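Contributing new records

If you add data, match the layout below exactly. Sequence lines come first and carry their own label; structure lines follow with theirs. Keep one chain per record. Anything else will be rejected by the validation script.
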Amino acid sequence: MMSLANESVGKTLAIFDDEEDILTIFSYILTEQGWTVYTFTDCDHILDKLANINPEVIFMDNWIPNQGGIIATQTLKNSVRYRQVPVIYFSANADIASLAQSAGADAYLAKPFELDELAAVIERVTKSSRLK
Protein backbone atom coordinates (compact mmCIF):
# COMPACT_ATOMS: atom_id res chain seq x y z
CA MET A 1 0.00 0.00 0.00
CA MET A 2 1.17 3.49 -0.82
CA SER A 3 2.09 5.54 2.26
CA LEU A 4 1.36 9.20 2.78
CA ALA A 5 3.47 9.48 5.91
CA ASN A 6 6.69 10.65 4.25
CA GLU A 7 5.27 13.78 2.69
CA SER A 8 2.35 14.56 4.97
CA VAL A 9 3.87 15.12 8.41
CA GLY A 10 2.35 18.30 9.80
CA LYS A 11 -0.12 18.62 6.92
CA THR A 12 -3.75 19.64 7.39
CA LEU A 13 -6.87 18.68 5.49
CA ALA A 14 -10.61 19.24 5.76
CA ILE A 15 -13.36 16.77 4.92
CA PHE A 16 -16.95 17.76 4.19
CA ASP A 17 -19.38 14.82 4.30
CA ASP A 18 -22.71 14.33 6.05
CA GLU A 19 -22.04 10.63 6.73
CA GLU A 20 -20.44 10.25 10.16
CA ASP A 21 -19.05 6.81 9.23
CA ILE A 22 -17.14 8.26 6.28
CA LEU A 23 -15.74 11.06 8.47
CA THR A 24 -14.65 8.55 11.12
CA ILE A 25 -12.95 6.27 8.60
CA PHE A 26 -11.22 9.14 6.78
CA SER A 27 -10.08 10.67 10.07
CA TYR A 28 -8.65 7.41 11.34
CA ILE A 29 -6.81 6.54 8.13
CA LEU A 30 -5.42 10.01 7.50
CA THR A 31 -4.47 10.72 11.11
CA GLU A 32 -2.50 7.46 11.07
CA GLN A 33 -0.72 8.81 7.98
CA GLY A 34 0.34 11.99 9.81
CA TRP A 35 -2.41 14.39 8.74
CA THR A 36 -4.31 16.75 11.00
CA VAL A 37 -7.94 16.20 9.97
CA TYR A 38 -10.90 18.53 10.40
CA THR A 39 -14.37 17.20 9.61
CA PHE A 40 -17.65 18.94 8.85
CA THR A 41 -21.14 17.50 8.30
CA ASP A 42 -22.39 20.47 6.27
CA CYS A 43 -20.88 23.19 4.11
CA ASP A 44 -22.81 26.16 5.50
CA HIS A 45 -20.53 29.20 5.92
CA ILE A 46 -17.70 27.16 4.41
CA LEU A 47 -15.22 30.03 4.28
CA ASP A 48 -15.74 30.74 7.98
CA LYS A 49 -15.31 27.06 8.85
CA LEU A 50 -11.94 26.96 7.11
CA ALA A 51 -10.71 30.37 8.31
CA ASN A 52 -8.49 29.09 11.14
CA ILE A 53 -7.55 25.76 9.61
CA ASN A 54 -5.52 26.57 6.48
CA PRO A 55 -6.05 23.14 4.88
CA GLU A 56 -3.66 21.89 2.23
CA VAL A 57 -6.32 19.56 0.79
CA ILE A 58 -10.12 19.62 0.97
CA PHE A 59 -12.40 16.63 0.39
CA MET A 60 -15.92 17.58 -0.70
CA ASP A 61 -18.87 15.21 -0.84
CA ASN A 62 -21.43 15.79 -3.58
CA TRP A 63 -24.52 15.34 -1.39
CA ILE A 64 -23.76 17.55 1.58
CA PRO A 65 -26.21 19.89 3.34
CA ASN A 66 -27.28 22.49 2.73
CA GLN A 67 -26.07 23.95 -0.53
CA GLY A 68 -24.37 20.83 -1.88
CA GLY A 69 -20.83 20.04 -2.94
CA ILE A 70 -20.90 21.77 -6.32
CA ILE A 71 -21.82 25.18 -4.91
CA ALA A 72 -19.48 24.73 -1.93
CA THR A 73 -16.56 23.86 -4.22
CA GLN A 74 -17.35 26.79 -6.51
CA THR A 75 -17.40 29.06 -3.44
CA LEU A 76 -13.92 27.84 -2.53
CA LYS A 77 -12.57 28.20 -6.06
CA ASN A 78 -13.96 31.76 -6.27
CA SER A 79 -12.25 32.71 -3.01
CA VAL A 80 -8.85 34.39 -3.24
CA ARG A 81 -7.74 32.58 -0.09
CA TYR A 82 -8.78 29.04 -1.10
CA ARG A 83 -8.71 28.92 -4.90
CA GLN A 84 -5.24 27.31 -4.90
CA VAL A 85 -6.18 24.66 -2.31
CA PRO A 86 -6.82 21.36 -4.08
CA VAL A 87 -10.39 20.09 -3.73
CA ILE A 88 -10.99 16.37 -4.15
CA TYR A 89 -14.62 15.74 -4.98
CA PHE A 90 -16.00 12.42 -3.81
CA SER A 91 -19.28 10.65 -4.24
CA ALA A 92 -20.94 7.32 -4.93
CA ASN A 93 -22.66 8.96 -7.92
CA ALA A 94 -21.82 7.17 -11.17
CA ASP A 95 -21.34 10.55 -12.87
CA ILE A 96 -18.61 11.68 -10.44
CA ALA A 97 -16.22 12.85 -13.17
CA SER A 98 -18.66 15.35 -14.67
CA LEU A 99 -19.89 16.45 -11.22
CA ALA A 100 -16.31 17.16 -10.16
CA GLN A 101 -15.72 19.10 -13.38
CA SER A 102 -18.91 21.14 -12.90
CA ALA A 103 -17.83 21.95 -9.36
CA GLY A 104 -14.35 23.01 -10.45
CA ALA A 105 -12.66 20.36 -8.29
CA ASP A 106 -9.02 19.45 -8.86
CA ALA A 107 -9.62 15.69 -8.68
CA TYR A 108 -12.26 13.17 -7.74
CA LEU A 109 -12.54 9.92 -5.83
CA ALA A 110 -15.44 7.53 -6.38
CA LYS A 111 -17.02 5.88 -3.33
CA PRO A 112 -16.37 3.19 -2.36
CA PHE A 113 -12.63 3.48 -2.79
CA GLU A 114 -9.53 1.49 -1.93
CA LEU A 115 -6.93 2.93 0.45
CA ASP A 116 -4.39 2.97 -2.38
CA GLU A 117 -6.75 5.16 -4.42
CA LEU A 118 -7.09 7.57 -1.49
CA ALA A 119 -3.32 7.79 -1.09
CA ALA A 120 -2.78 8.25 -4.82
CA VAL A 121 -5.29 11.09 -5.25
CA ILE A 122 -3.89 13.00 -2.26
CA GLU A 123 -0.35 12.56 -3.51
CA ARG A 124 -1.35 13.71 -7.02
CA VAL A 125 -3.08 16.91 -5.87
CA THR A 126 -0.45 17.86 -3.29
CA LYS A 127 2.34 17.42 -5.85
CA SER A 128 0.37 19.45 -8.38
CA SER A 129 -0.35 22.27 -5.91
CA ARG A 130 3.33 22.46 -4.89
CA LEU A 131 4.23 22.97 -8.55
CA LYS A 132 1.89 25.99 -8.89
